[in-house]
Write a structure and sequence with these properties.
heterodimer; A: mainly alpha; B: mainly alpha; 5 helices
Chain lengths: ~500, ~140
């Protein structure tokens, strides 16, 4: 299936087009057009999954263990779909928040190279190729984070780069060990070799390398320090984009690797995952309570919510994995929306500090509604998407008798709710503090509000259509738990 | 530096760099060399000029902006994927064309060469972009 390569090829074509166009007006429209095309590609690939279990393409026509495989199963297709939604939304949002600001003229080029990396990471079927996409993501995100060249951006960018390079190093070392032991890096081939291997103790060294590396990428406790150090520095468009996609690549890889080929020592690994998940949830949630800068609060929440996804992987039943996928998709949408609304708020009030913001509910009730939807979705209030994500995870936890981590998950929801109420009280309900310097009154255009409205609708729809959507995530989870289908699809010889 | 000897020498000697870059590019398929090395050497073609003159002067004289070199390089790489789609079921599949050119003999031209030209142009563009950015005072 040649179409399988489209999620990588399309951003590549867009980058070329952007390199030749010299005007900011064109890049804005190329961005929006590219976002829409990417959406079409993602929907098309998803619709193809009705006929095939797994879409497979062998790059360069070299059959599976020798060449690089691209494979799209339900998990990949769902991730591509939600990424496409984010790309479209951020492209619209960027047209006003990036626009033609000086220093941001190359934004769209690196935006699409980041998307190329993210899409590539979601569809590749080869561990080394996955590493390459991680590097593509890392390089473009480093440029995006320092774009604008303020001192604190450079500081945040260097912390981000350093810790992520350590992750890359460990990941590469893990790849080396894995290759030395098995002689292959194709994921399906690895699964076939390792699943018949009794010497799992030898695998644990490379599994631990992967675990730590991907743990840094996914920002789990105690490896998350790069995230709060850097996410509050760049332009809000960039922060929103990162908040949604970067850590989720790490979570996606953890789910993929620890269901496909690191399954020899389930007791050890999945207990470790559960412990990490519990700590990540609590510590992220608690750290968020002490801050009064909206981007920092929301950054710590990213960490806290990574914990839920890892918890789903740690419980390791089809229901729990379906819950983790459901939660991940809900979280990408709601989290980005929360950041986008905070961008709008900062545009109105000129600051991200809650102490200097107030009275928004009276001034702009519409923005207040836009905030309350992602906030309640994140906190898990029915009928929004977050409730169902948490509900599935908690149900899976109780069914499989993991009472402690389930209790932690429930209690962390209260912490999330507390932080959201804090933002609500400070920014929207309390009176505008006097003696603060307000920017002149801004008129909000459609390109500022539309992204947020779209994502809010997505959050509501995900809640209202939770049952059919849960069926989808469950079939993704079943495909992951029963890896034979994936392995067969990749390893069959091409005709 | 303002040396008339260097300036005059640069005018003629720089062509050698370009020639050597092309040789490195083409022989790279069977021997050491290739698009990356070739691209670096081709960048020297312009860097050598900027030693004799100033890099600002050279940047003004360039008809093609380094970014467009990068764009052209990526475009070449993209074009090299396409023949594979028609010949088989896969992207990036190598497709070879046998040509009987007088004097040189039977020459095999293929998509890997096109891809390598893409690498060549991209590396050249990136190197020049580094040069011009680093030599600009802000």
């Amino acid at each position: 299936m040649i179409e399988t390569g489209l999620p990588i090829l399309l951003p590549f074509v867009l980058i070329i087009a952007l390199l030749f166009s010299r005007s900011a007006v064109y890049s804005k429209w190329i961005g929006i057009l590219g976002g829409s095309l990417n959406m079409v590609v993602a929907i098309y690939l998803f619709s193809q999954l009705r006929q095939h279990d797994v879409l497979v393409m062998q790059m360069g026509g070299w059959a599976a263990p020798y060449g690089i495989t691209l494979a799209v199963d339900y998990l990949s297709a769902l991730m591509l779909l939600v990424t496409a939604l984010i790309v479209l939304v951020i492209a619209i949002y960027a047209s006003r928040f990036i626009g033609d600001k000086p220093g941001y003229s190359k934004f769209h080029i690196f935006f699409f190279s980041l998307i190329m990396g993210v899409n590539g990471a979601f569809i590749t079927g080869d561990v080394f190729n996955f590493y390459v996409w991680l590097e593509v993501i890392l390089l473009s995100s480093f440029v995006l984070i320092t774009m604008g060249a303020k001192i604190e951006q450079l500081e945040g960018g260097i912390k981000y780069m350093t810790l992520n390079l350590i992750a890359s190093l460990l990941f590469l070392a893990g790849i080396g060990l894995l290759y030395g032991k098995t002689g292959t890096l194709n994921m399906a081939h690895l699964a076939r070799i390792l699943n018949f291997d009794q010497q799992s103790i030898l695998m644990n060294t490379s599994a631990m390398m992967f675990f730590v590396a991907l743990g840094i990428k996914a920002a789990v406790f105690p490896l998350f320090f790069w995230l709060p150090a850097s996410y509050h520095t760049p332009n809000i468009t960039v922060t929103s984009l990162f908040a949604g996609l970067l850590t989720k690549v790490g979570v996606y890889a953890l789910i993929r690797f620890f269901t496909l080929f690191f399954v020899q020592d389930v007791d050890f690994w999945h207990n470790l995952l559960l412990i990490m998940a519990g700590l990540t949830m609590v510590i992220g949630g608690m750290a968020a309570t002490i801050y009064f800068e909206t981007r920092r609060i929301l950054s710590y929440h990213i960490i806290s919510q990574i914990g839920y996804m890892i918890m789903g992987l740690g419980i390791y039943t089809p229901l729990a994995i379906a819950g983790a996928i459901f939660f991940m998709i809900h979280n990408i949408i709601a989290k980005i929306n929360a950041f986008l609304v905070m961008g709008i708020v900062s545009k109105i009030k000129g600051t991200f500090y809650l102490k200097n913001i107030g009275g928004l509910y009276k001034e702009r009730p519409f923005i207040a509604i836009l905030f309350i939807i992602p906030a309640f979705a994140l906190a898990g209030i029915p009928p929004l998407s977050g409730f169902f994500g948490k509900f599935i995870l908690i149900k899976a936890g109780i069914e499989d008798k993991h009472y402690i981590v389930t209790a932690v998950a429930v209690l962390t929801s209260l912490l999330t709710l507390y932080s959201m109420i804090k933002i609500w009280n400070e920014a929207f309900l309390k009176k505008q503090p006097e003696a603060t310097h307000l920017p002149p009154k801004v008129k909000l255009g459609i390109s500022e509000v539309l992204p947020s409205v779209l994502l809010a609708l997505a959050s509501i729809l995900l809640g209202l259509l939770a049952a059919p959507f849960f069926e989808l995530t469950l079939s993704a989870a079943n495909q992951l738990m029963d890896s034979d289908v994936y392995i067969e699809a990749v390893l069959k010889r091409i005709e | 530096m303002n040396s008339i000897i260097l300036q005059l020498a640069a005018k003629y000697l720089k062509i050698l760099f370009l020639l050597f870059a092309l040789i490195a590019l083409i022989r790279g398929h069977n021997y050491p060399g290739g698009g990356f090395i070739g691209g670096l050497l081709a960048a020297l073609y312009i860097v050598y000029d900027s030693l004799a003159f100033t890099s600002q002067q050279i940047e003004k004289k360039l008809r093609i902006h380094p970014e467009q070199y990068i764009g052209a390089g990526l475009l070449c790489a993209l074009l090299s994927f396409i023949p594979g789609i028609y010949s088989g079921s896969s992207l990036m599949k190598g497709v070879w064309l046998s040509l009987d050119i007088p004097v040189i003999g039977v020459t095999k031209l293929g998509t890997p060469l096109l891809f390598d030209i893409g690498v060549f142009l991209t590396v050249m563009g990136v190197t020049l972009l580094f040069l011009f950015t680093l030599s600009t005072k802000r």
